[in-house]
Write a structure and sequence with these properties.
Length: 297
């Protein structure tokens, strides 16, 4: 005689427990499961958790812009009484320091997102997922913007407290200057990461060095006319010189130099396209050679 199974009639098969019903849609606006926006948001969230989970990283973002602003602020105070050029516009040096740091932080923020993947040996794992290279670039650019704002805004506010100078008084042109320098940092970061992909982590110091190679011809603290004639054409072939010439035009009361801003935008579009092309070629070369899995400390 066969024993009964379950509590019901003889031979009845027990039913599996009912699966709780899942909500049809997650809270918030619906995003298709395979959409680029979802993948980009996931990478941004990963970088944000890395940043938020380390207070030394957050402190470092604001530390250097603030130190530079304080240092150059006191130098400016000393020069105001002795230099008619500086006395025409008290904030010209402080504004130059703050805007230059936008470029530096934009480039470094982009490059560090890339380097963190190499340091953690996560680059190969990242692209086992459906993430595409251009989506990764958008995520790194977004985090570059976040890192730059975290670093620059406190320094701008302290400039108001310490020296009574409000860089936001530049007005609407400041938005254009900020955007141009941030994009310049992005295409520099693209070229730097492309070189690291090809050369390995031995070239990671380029992330800190290359941007300063452009500083002497960027006309941050002096007009382009100060440069030797042979270097002036090189300066005008790069967006930062146009941005800082436009900044001085506004601060000295000459109005917005739209020609410089338009030139900076046009050059940035060309260099950004070039940088993206160089990065994608380097990325696909590294993928074919299996270097994505070999990169790391």
């Amino acid at each position: 005689m066969t024993p009964d199974r379950g509590d019901g009639p003889a031979g009845a098969v027990p039913r599996a427990p009912a699966t709780p019903a899942l909500p049809e849609h997650a809270p918030g606006p619906p995003v298709p499961p395979g959409s680029p926006l979802r993948r980009i948001s996931a990478v941004i969230l990963r970088y944000w958790f890395l940043l938020r989970g380390s207070w030394p990283r957050l402190l470092e973002l604001a530390y250097w812009p603030t130190i530079q602003m304080v240092l150059w602020g006191f130098i400016t105070l000393n020069l105001v009484g002795d230099s008619s050029w500086v006395s025409q516009s008290f904030g010209v040096l402080i504004s130059g320091v703050l805007l230059w740091d936008v470029l530096f932080r934009g480039q470094l923020g982009f490059s560090l997102c890339f380097l963190e993947e190499l340091w953690s040996r996560n680059l190969g794992h990242l692209f086992v997922s459906p993430l595409r290279p251009h989506e990764w670039l958008v995520a790194m650019m977004t985090m570059s913007l976040v890192r730059t704002l975290i670093g620059i805004v406190p320094a701008c506010l302290l400039a108001i407290v310490f020296y009574g100078w409000n860089v936001f008084s530049i007005g609407f042109p400041l938005v254009g200057f900020f955007a141009c320098l941030l994009v310049t940092g992005w295409w520099m970061g693209l070229i730097i990461t492309a070189l690291i992909l090809l050369l390995g982590l031995g070239a990671e110091s380029l992330a800190w060095l290359i941007v300063f190679l452009f500083a002497p011809i960027s006309a941050i603290y002096y007009p382009v006319d100060v440069l030797p004639p042979a270097l002036q054409w090189l300066a005008y072939a790069l967006p930062p010189a146009h941005v800082f010439e436009g900044m001085r035009s506004v601060l000295f009361g000459h109005g917005m130099a739209w020609g410089h801003l338009i030139a900076a935008i046009g050059l940035n579009i060309a260099y950004l396209a070039l940088g993206a092309g160089v990065f994608l070629v380097s990325f696909h070369t590294a993928r074919r050679q299996g270097a994505l899995l070999q990169q790391g400390e």
